[in-house]
Amino acid sequence: MTTPVKKPTRPVEGPVRRMPGWAKALTALVLVLVVLFAGLRLSVVPGLKDLFGSETQDRSGPALLKSVQDISRYDAASGNFQVVVDLEKDTRFLPDAIRGTRTLYVGAGTVDAFVDLGKVGEDDVRVNGERTSATLRLPHAALGKPALDPDRSYAVSKQRGLLDRLGDLFSDNPNGEQAVQKLAARHIGEAAKDSELKARAESNTTAMLRGLLTSLGFEEVRVTYGT
């Protein structure tokens, strides 16, 4: 007597879940973006970088003349300065990794030294009867405001905490360098005061006036400074 062979029973399978159409489209879009990004970074697709390259357009309006100011000063000397600014801002009871900034900035700029000839009055200029000798009394040289050169000034490094990085995302001026620029200008101005820039300006002004008056026929020219 033969024993009937039972066929193995197949497990009952549930309904097959298919990926929704929107998920397929999103996956395809992500793959396309990944391929394009890889092509841009690795330049594996010729001409792809040019196709998605950035373009800069200047849409600024025309500059308007707001005012005109007469200048009577003689710029007699100019000093070039450079300073390294290390500005750190910390928050009490919070580590620097959470809240705090530190910026290392190289500031380069100039300071002009000038003599204001507009302050010279009639009593400050004396000429003898033969017009061969002249004595001039001028105000001491002064320093102009420091002017930073954007082409030679730059940030070396910037360290920011997590909260500062998040704040930059919602700020109108992320990573602003206004604070370090003001500090660099202040240090440059202080360095100009300690330099011999004003003395050089007075010496150059004296040489200019002597050369000018000598060419007009004066044999003796004396220039003094102070009120």
TrEMBL record:
One Pfam family, short name: DUF4230
Protein name, as recorded: DUF4230 domain-containing protein
InterPro entries: DUF4230
Source species, domain of life: Bacteria
